[in-house]
Amino acid sequence: MPKHADKRPRHQQIAADLRALIMAGTLPRNTQIPSTQQLVDKYDAANATIQRALTILKNEGYLYGVPGKGVFVRDKQPFVIDVAAYFAPSPEGFTYKLIDVREVQPPVEVVDALGIAPNETAILRHRLLLHAGEPIELSWSYYPASIAAGTPLAERKRIRGGAPQALADLGYPQQNLTDQISTRPPTPEEVEGLELPEEVPVIRQFRVIYSNNMQPVEASILVKGGHLYELKYKVATT
After folding, report:
1. Looking at the structure, do residues 49 and 88 belong to the same domain, yes or no?
2. Average pLDDT in the 144-153 region?
3. CATH at residue 51
4. Residues 25 and 114 reside in one and the same domain
5. How far is the C-alpha of 88 from the C-alpha of 13, rounded, in Å?
6. What per-residue string of b and e applies to 48-69 under the rule 16 or more CB within 10 Å gives b?
7. pTM of the complete model
């Protein structure tokens, strides 16, 4: 008996195994998966359990059914994220929905990251990123009020060129960034805003942007559906 047995319901275990096979390419894109009976035999599970597992993967976008033919692996390409990338809005690509802009008392981690006093405020820009009309990321970006108050960063409207351009215009060009990556279950707000399927975790990035002399000018919490993304890092070894 393993020290830490998998206590998830059987359909979740099967979905996890099939998901791993799809991500590894063992079940290639645009190919038919084994029949329900073959999966019943492979996993020694009831037909209803297999169907529940397949429903999870259909909801996540990994599989699709063709009436009278079977279930196939969708040609699903994850968003491979270059951590330094800024998604410029485009007619057929990425667009932003501005949810809120206001002056707030930021959370402790933001206070620490920006190096501001505990009683200082920040300008919050809360946004939803969409791709082809589908929600893919929620973001909460904080800027020290001493920098952003009374500027386009504090206005409840989109900024031409985005926040990077606004900061550059203020004399704070972006020079470096750090990312802290974690995963966790989504909050109710994130489930609704990102239209997440059941049981999908989120990827949380805590990003700090630095300007000249490593001055922190932006701290952002970026939350993405874990079923949509892969994070790619390129590190020089010489």
Report:
1. no
2. 97
3. 1.10.10.10
4. no
5. 38
6. ebbebbbbbbebbebbeeeeee
7. 0.84
